[in-house]
TrEMBL record:
One Pfam family linked to the record: DUF1398
Protein name: Uncharacterized conserved protein YbcV, DUF1398 family
Organism: Chryseobacterium takakiae
InterPro entries in the record: DUF1398 (IPR009833), YdfO-like_sf (IPR036696)
Amino acid sequence: MFTVEQIEAAHAKVKSGADFPVYIQEIKEFGVRSFETWVKDSHTEYVGENGYTTKSQPQYDELTVENTVDKELFVNQLKSHQRGETDYMKFCEDCARTGIEKWIVDLDQFTCIYYDKSGNKILIEEIPH
């Protein structure tokens, strides 16, 4: 089974969204099947084989997630992050400002789905692998 410490060590190598696909491959090798990250404090719940789960601690003081989604602005900020123009904290702040509450990454499907506070899917992305 994998540990939060292993995942956090892999995540520490991520400097921008451009590094995300390599990170995903690394944690998939640990046995992570999916994970759900909450924008308010970046705590993440990880799921592995046979119902195994573990959870990280909050990574920063709570952000206020807006109730209204600005999808166009979010997509523009996401693209900027994926080009390596912003760090993780800035990306989380951008998510909160544009109404993104969480994202769920499925490592079997190689998708990342972003959700609003009502549980609506705002964007489904395929992860390069």
